[in-house]
Amino acid sequence: MDLMSSIKYLQHVGFFTFTTGILDSRHFSQRQTDVPLRVLEIGCGPGDFAHLLKNHYKEKISLTALDPSECAIKQAQSKNIDVAFHNKGILDWQPSQPDNEYDVVIFTKSLHHCDELEKCVQRARNLLAKDGVLLVEELQLDNMDTVSINWMFDRIDLLTAANRLSSHGLHPPHTAIIDRTIPGVQRWGDFLQHRTCHPSQDVKDAIYSVFGKENTKLLENVPFMHYFLPRYNLEDSDIGKSILTEFMAQEDRALVNNTIKSPGFNVVAEK
């Protein structure tokens, strides 16, 4: 089954490649046991990233995934894959065994939503086995400069004009993103002003505080803008896949050439 033929999976290819690279180099290249690697994903949403990981590693990993949204977990469970999905947040959930420890804990675009930020990071560290690793995919929307904002909105506006994107099913401040009557820089500023999530620096500081800077590696400027396309209802079809693939290729080139700054970053923290 080629999951990447669907844009709901294809959009995750960057962090998926990052994650599998870490797991392969740190764990599977050195493991001398058939015992599955224990992985916990926090903020799994409808389970697409978990599906990718399980489909890739199969019986090599034992995967548990959490999300506080009942609707999202129902979507995840409907995939009928061998993943233990739980309708819980990290502070509310208890493993089936009190001493259950995980080799890898992953926050997928979810840490900035956690109310008690440092407490959640500490809980994640407590769940890690000795030498376990925390992987974090996060966003720093305030990292975008004017050139980067205009670069993104030029492409979003072109796709909106071609009726490839819409705000259907979304609510403010997200609906303003594809309002072409408002200049891109103003739209972005309004969007940031009305968001209630933790700033990116608070996320980084919480990880540094719990794991220590010496045990934390930060990867800045990772591709992230492409996530807006599926978010704004890009159709899941051959055309949609071609559009998303080209957008991702353009974003990669612009980042390599230092033409734009990305609103995304990844973290690797070792226990």
UniProtKB/TrEMBL annotation:
Gene3D superfamilies documented for this protein: Vaccinia Virus protein VP39 (3.40.50.150)
GO molecular-function terms, A-Z: methyltransferase activity
GO biological process: methylation
SUPFAM superfamilies: S-adenosyl-L-methionine-dependent methyltransferases (SSF53335)
Entry annotated with the keyword Transferase: yes
Record domain Methyltransferase: where: 39-132
Keyword Secreted attributed: no
Pfam families registered for this protein in UniProt: Methyltransf_25
Name this polypeptide is given: S-adenosyl-L-methionine-dependent methyltransferase
